[in-house]
Amino acid sequence: MSTEVRMVDLVWVLDCADPTALAPFWADLLGWTVRGDGGRYEAVLDADGVTRMLLQRVPEPKTVKNRMHLDLRVSDMDVWLPRALGLGASVVRGPFDDGGWLTTVLADPQGNEFCLIVPPE
């Protein structure tokens, strides 16, 4: 048995109706870039050019709460919430205090939930 440690590269895959339309929202919110061809997949790359998110076209609509979502830890809700809303997000719930963590649950333009969270100081 090998004791070699292998790196794991985590990529978040998001099912959606229209990856080409949704990719700019995530890229702009995160300050990243989009790479794609308008097909079934659109990649969102971080500042180093590494794919961190893959938007995947699926035929079925989103109908229930996501079982997994992104938590974006931010420094200032008063800066990040208007930014997300300006890009097309909508507030699902909040802001509220979650045990000292200021939290707002949002949905992207295609209804996928994510959270903006300000950690306690």
From TrEMBL:
Gene3D superfamilies: 2,3-Dihydroxybiphenyl 1,2-Dioxygenase, domain 1. Residues 6-119 form the VOC domain. This is Glyoxalase-like domain protein. Coiled coil: none annotated. It comes from Actinomadura rubteroloni. Pfam families: Glyoxalase_6. Signal peptide: none annotated. PROSITE patterns: VOC (PS51819).
